[in-house]
Write a structure and sequence with these properties.
de novo design (two linked rop proteins), about 130 residues, single chain
């Protein structure tokens, strides 16, 4: 998936979380959990955008790890809403699946970047050894 599509997908995650929260009952428990979900779900897209503007590979990896953490946290809050009986599982299942896919793609990107970074470190060491 290209950068533009992934930016849109992560933004949609935040928007869909907002829609779920708006449908929750108005009570103290739902209010606390809904604030947490909105923070984590909207953070996924914001941090992915930041990762796209990273200054280096290590910086990008660090920012993508935040994307992974925030997406995983979003799953936690959604599961809590379901298990607390605030929303039916059917209403959250698609968002849970999409969030899980975002995590998987983010982890794959992190691994690819780490491999590339490792290879470039290896190539740099090899070039230094050849100069001796």
């Amino acid at each position: 998936m290209d950068e533009k599509l992934f930016k849109e997908r992560t933004k949609q995650l935040g928007l869909r979380a907002i829609q779920i929260v708006q449908a929750l009952p108005k009570n103290p428990t739902a209010d606390v959990i809904s604030r947490q979900l909105i923070r984590s779900a909207t953070s996924v897209g914001a941090n992915y955008r930041a990762a796209c503007r990273a200054r280096s590979t290590p910086d990008m990896i660090a920012k993508l790890r935040i994307v992974e953490e925030e997406a995983d946290e979003s799953i936690y809050w959604l599961e809590l809403m379901i298990e607390a009986g605030l929303i039916p599982e059917a209403k959250a299942s698609e968002l849970l699946r999409d969030t899980d896919e975002i995590i998987a793609m983010t982890v794959a990107s992190i691994r690819t970047l780490q491999k590339r970074q490792g290879n470039s470190d290896f190539n740099r060491k090899s070039k230094i050894e050849n100069l001796k």
